[in-house]
Write a structure and sequence with these properties.
- By secondary structure, this protein is of the alpha+beta class.
- It has one domain (about 1-110).
- Helix content is about 50%, strand content about 20%.
- It is built from two helices and three strands.
- The chain has helices at about 1-10, 15-65, and strands at about 75-80, 85-95, 100-105.
- A three-stranded antiparallel beta sheet has the order 1-2-3.
- The mean pLDDT is about 80.
Length: about 110
C-alpha cells in the first residue's frame, strides 16, 4: 500500500502549462461575465429607482396642489338639487404632468 502511495506522490504525471493557462482563461471569462451581469443589474436598479422617485414626486405634487407659478389649479363647482335641498361641492383639479388629482374643498360657511 505504501508503495502505491509513493508512486502517486513521486509520479511525473501532472498538469501541463497549457492546461493551467486554459483553466485560468475559463475562470477569467466566468468572472468577467458575472461582473458584467452585476454591473448591468446595478444600472437597471438605479434607472428604476430614479423613474420611481420622479413618479412619486409627480404624484405628491398632484395630491398636494400645484407648486409652480405658471399653472393654477382648476376649481369646479357641482350643485346637486335632488330632494329639495341643493348641495354645492367645490372640487379642485390639480394637474402634475401625467397625473391629475381631484380634491373636494370644504366651504367656510359649512361650520
Amino acid at each position: 500500500m505504501r508503495a502505491k502511495i509513493r508512486a502517486v506522490l513521486k509520479g511525473s504525471r501532472g498538469e501541463t502549462l497549457m492546461e493551467g493557462v486554459a483553466s485560468i482563461l475559463v475562470f477569467t471569462i466566468l468572472i468577467a461575465s458575472v461582473t458584467l451581469t452585476i454591473m448591468v443589474s446595478l444600472r437597471m436598479t438605479a434607472l428604476s429607482n430614479e423613474a420611481a422617485r420622479t413618479m412619486q414626486e409627480d404624484v405628491r405634487t398632484a395630491l398636494e396642489g400645484s407648486d409652480d407659478d405658471d399653472g393654477e389649479d382648476i376649481v369646479f363647482t357641482f350643485t346637486i338639487t335632488g330632494g329639495g335641498v341643493p348641495v354645492t361641492v367645490k372640487v379642485t383639479v390639480t394637474d402634475a404632468g401625467a397625473f391629475r388629482a381631484f380634491a373636494p374643498q370644504k366651504d367656510d360657511d359649512d361650520d
